[in-house]
Amino acid sequence: MTPVGFDRVTFSDGFWQKIRAQNAAISIKNVYRRFEETGRFAALRCQKQKEPPHIFYDSDVAKWLEGAAYLQREFPDEEVRSIIDEAVNAIVENQLPCGYFNSYFQVYEPDKIFTRRTEHELYCAGHLIEAAVALDVCGVNGRLLAAMRKYADYIYLRFYVRRDAGFTTCGHPEIELALVRLYLHTGEKRYLTLAKFFLDERGVREEEIYPFADRAYDQSHMPVRMQREAAGHAVRALYLYSAMADVGRIAGDEQLIDTCRALYRDVADKKLYVTGGVGSGWFGERFTIPYDLPNADAYAETCAAIALALFCHRLAQTDNRAEYHATLERALYNSILAAESANGKGFFYENPLEADARYAKYANTIPGFPHKPLLQRAEVFGCSCCPPNLVRFFAQLGGFVYGEEGEVLTVNQYVSSQVSACGIRLSVQTDIPFSGNVDIRADGRGTLSLRLPAWRTFTHCEVDGKHVVLQEIDDYAYFEVEGSTHVKLVFGMQPRFVYANERVRADSGRKAVEYGPLVMCAEQADNGDELFSVEIPSLENAVVSCGKDFKILVPALRLRTESSLYGYSAPQKQPFTLTLIPYYRWANRGENDMQIWFL
Amino acid sequence: MTPVGFDRVTFSDGFWQKIRAQNAAISIKNVYRRFEETGRFAALRCQKQKEPPHIFYDSDVAKWLEGAAYLQREFPDEEVRSIIDEAVNAIVENQLPCGYFNSYFQVYEPDKIFTRRTEHELYCAGHLIEAAVALDVCGVNGRLLAAMRKYADYIYLRFYVRRDAGFTTCGHPEIELALVRLYLHTGEKRYLTLAKFFLDERGVREEEIYPFADRAYDQSHMPVRMQREAAGHAVRALYLYSAMADVGRIAGDEQLIDTCRALYRDVADKKLYVTGGVGSGWFGERFTIPYDLPNADAYAETCAAIALALFCHRLAQTDNRAEYHATLERALYNSILAAESANGKGFFYENPLEADARYAKYANTIPGFPHKPLLQRAEVFGCSCCPPNLVRFFAQLGGFVYGEEGEVLTVNQYVSSQVSACGIRLSVQTDIPFSGNVDIRADGRGTLSLRLPAWRTFTHCEVDGKHVVLQEIDDYAYFEVEGSTHVKLVFGMQPRFVYANERVRADSGRKAVEYGPLVMCAEQADNGDELFSVEIPSLENAVVSCGKDFKILVPALRLRTESSLYGYSAPQKQPFTLTLIPYYRWANRGENDMQIWFL
């Protein structure tokens, strides 16, 4: 399956277009302002400051540039355009004659260039390369691509030809997938060679590792082809696996493809939050052990959910299995969407599935408390990788929607939009995620395949006004389009319980409520506190309210009265109406308790 | 109520005598050996070593000396005796002329004596004073008392008379309760004055605090009389509250007594584990917020449960309420007893209520992991306060059993033993905690009052062979003894569910099993893993097996088959027989999973 590029997909009014428009109007500018204030853009000018920039500031700006590139196509903006050009100029002008660019090392420790594996140089390079490709693809600015090709050539020279750098692979994967993008965009084979080289050299010798971590932290505990279990820092892991999927597909490397399938299975079967979040361990922001998915302590970094989506997107290019799109959809509508505030200005870095506002308040009174729960989104972080990652992700969303599989146009996500591919002009209009109605108009001649979401409770289909029983093959339904065809689909949405495998300690004996692709949650703002002891006996009488703010009202039980700390009789509860809202809308009304898993 | 001193209580064969005998034969010697190996005894000789002793080594040895004193009375042992004498000689010989003794400060930082509030000097002094009193009471060695009186006089001079020390109150309470003991033993009023001074000066000004903590950490966030919520480091807190209860009682200080009652209520109603453990937060070993009682992450330091018992013991001396003894009993049979291995050699510092062996193994692979669960007892720790605290606690257990309340002899705990008090010679024989049979023979003339345990499911009583309906007043039953009386009591024991207040997140929707005073647990060694998802629908068909190893067999349900990570149908479980053992016996068969709270 070849994804239809985001540049070929035109969004129309609907759920995602609102988010994308806000991304262009608010988020990208607000992220810019916070980055400007914190010296991230100034650092590109490579002049010594009192406070040196963080070693990964370049990557923050690069992700911003990448997002800005995508947005310029559809939402051109003079202000953003001039920021892009200035930033690109700064990079190009300050690039060393050899091609190297890093606003920290070349200014503050030029003698240490390419000597320390743990300091993100190739990670920053990777994001700059991705930005360069995006700016060129979108026709916004071609200068960065030339500069970054030069940089990539220099990396090729030092790491592959001469092999005289102080390390072989970077402590934070990213360069690998960036080099594949550069190869795909330029056709220059040596970038693919270098990407494959970085993959194959990883974990084969004892390279420098992080002092606070083990070798699995940066996936260098064994050769990547031998890795069958997702391990270590989740963003590092999933960027690496994404590159493995790319190289496996492009090189027809079955062993690498098979490794990616095994890694995906390990994540999807044992290490995935119901929200699509991954990397449960806050210490090391990492994958831990199977079924270790704590809720209040969930790390589930925003960048990790995005990286999971990128990995799924690549896996589907080799095998277009509905499951990959379903996992991407789970991450997209829940963990990823929840990471941005309703007003587009604030961002979560961590995405817990349960919030205890009292505990957060307590933790904040203790200096040195090792992991303080953040229950409010922030506009910028010291390590602010997530905000620009969200900006660039939402900006390229169109690229995850459609695919060309041989002669077949596949609809992998339902987004109100138009596309032309495989001889079909397609227009999709949908209320998803609030109702399961999908209206599809197809013109032309060809085959259309529609993914049937795993969450549907029933499927109703009319073609040109006539009810049709769908022929489902592996969760896709196929339609022959001849002339003008109108497909009306209803994917049944009812609030329903989802149960975690009982091996998940945190969710054992509990259940969550899903509605279509949405994981629902309860917030203190609607329901008062003590939400973790709320019991939902049944969803039979649940009422879905699609007013201004989507919510579901559910008859439930909660604590009745005060009682002693321990007692010999089961706690008595009283009925009340529980208000559930989509998880992605939580924490937009101040710091408060939140709950997903109920008794 | 005045407790009958441990020296007046003679234990007979039974549950506790076995533990006490092991304490004398094994534990005290083993703790000595580990302390000797780690330089704790050598430090008393006050000669500079390559490695300075920890600042609290003196307190470790002092607690050992205190325990050794109690044990010498009943289990005289030449080897232990000579260790005691040598240690006392070392202290006496190296005491500074002014009376000061501290094996760290006087050797390594003599110019810093009494300048740093956070470095345990008065804490160490307190434990040495307690040891001195115990050695004198037990007639083992009177030299230390003389030396420690001199030291206490010096503290009085510096802190109270001259007030020229570098701080006013010690960062680790202990001196306060030790001074009360010294006052009660010697009758010297200035020690009581000094104890009261230290209490009243705490929290009234901004003294030095620990860099990693807030002012509540060492209970100096407000004047102690204003404190109504248990806060901060749990051992510090409960040693402080114990001294407050002492001074309140002795001085008839109603405000102080009322404060202690409020603090007790806060602990018992909101911050107490079902095992009697307290101080749930591992960061700071402290009380956190109401109902924050995580199981796998429970800190519940052994010393904190002991300190809670000491506090209850003192509270009961002002109001002899059954509840205080019930809480002491809960801590005693569960958290405290579990802290020692079956062979008397190993000790827990932390006492979790749930063990996840796989997670512990994982955490051990990560360097710098902030809180690694310890699922096996150790013989010594870097900070090894708990092992000698257990030794001295079990050694003085007799002191917690009986009380004289006016003319009434009260039985507060049921322990096979003899005592003479209030005109009655009493002999108690019991199988508690394995069955609720208590056989009491009383001779003499007087009133006997028997605590009716909160855990009894029924009470059967025969006096001289005749069934009697008990007259209960506030959970005590009263008997007039005239000549020779034989009381046979049966306290009903059936395995029963105990429920935590639903405000306890960790236990919400779950229940534990109690049997008499014992909290039961399930271990992997008997049951396999995945114990947290075990469901106990009913205890009706539970079988109590009082063989060599006490256990309860319960029909239960567990995971049937593998299933996906998330699914729309409730998990299927299959019946099996769950083996429960007393919590205090856990972790005696290698590192394995353990569970107390079940679905």
UniProtKB/TrEMBL annotation, chains A, B:
Any one Gene Ontology molecular-function term assigned to this protein's record: hydrolase activity
Keyword Hydrolase in annotation: yes
One Pfam family recorded for the sequence: Glyco_hydro127C
One GO-annotated biological process of the protein: carbohydrate metabolic process
UniProt superkingdom: Bacteria
InterPro entries linked: 6-hairpin_glycosidase_sf (IPR008928), Beta-AFase-like (IPR049174), Beta-AFase-like_GH127_C (IPR049049), Beta-AFase-like_GH127_cat (IPR012878), Beta-AFase-like_GH127_middle (IPR049046)
Residue ranges of domain Non-reducing end beta-L-arabinofuranosidase-like GH127 middle in the record: 409-482
Residue ranges of domain Non-reducing end beta-L-arabinofuranosidase-like GH127 catalytic in the record: 9-398
Limits of the Non-reducing end beta-L-arabinofuranosidase-like GH127 C-terminal domain: 495-598
Protein's name in the database: Glycoside hydrolase family 127 protein
Species name: Candidatus Fimimonas merdipullorum
